[in-house]
Amino acid sequence: xxxxxxxxxxxxxxxxxxxxxxxxxxxxxxxxxxxxxxxxxxxxxxxxxxxxxxxxxxxxxxxxxxxxxxxxxxxxxxxxxxxxxxxxxxxxxxxxxxxxxxxxxxxxxxxxxxxxxxxxxxxxxxxxxxxxxxxxxxxxxxxxxxxxxxxxxxxxxxxxxxx
Length: 163
Hints:
Elements: H1 2-12, H2 15-31, H3 41-44, H4 60-75, H5 81-95, H6 100-103, H7 117-121, H8 131-137, H9 141-146, H10 148-160
């Protein structure tokens, strides 16, 4: 029953989706090859049982290697490439304006020009923090706590909330 449903679902998919799924499966098998000495279905094909020269001596060392290989395989993190690329795109979009290489240094790069206003704006304690500095606090809680200005603002907020 399940095979019929899978076949029906694969026929309904678009061609581009089928190609992506095939590439994902191919990448999975490339990265998750069986341990050395074991039969590989993809390399040898259905006639692998007839190949006597590639047989492995089944002794305790072989099984120890196989168990160790399986343990390492279980410990690996596996993430689909589409999920990985999606999270990379979110990360890139989030930090785009805060990356001095991608967006440039505002107001100007003090390493190139003699203008030191960038250092003045981003000192530890200023009257009003820059918009980019405040946005960086929203990325994660550690960004807020690592910034002395952010810690001060957070303490003021906690005092207002009677925390």
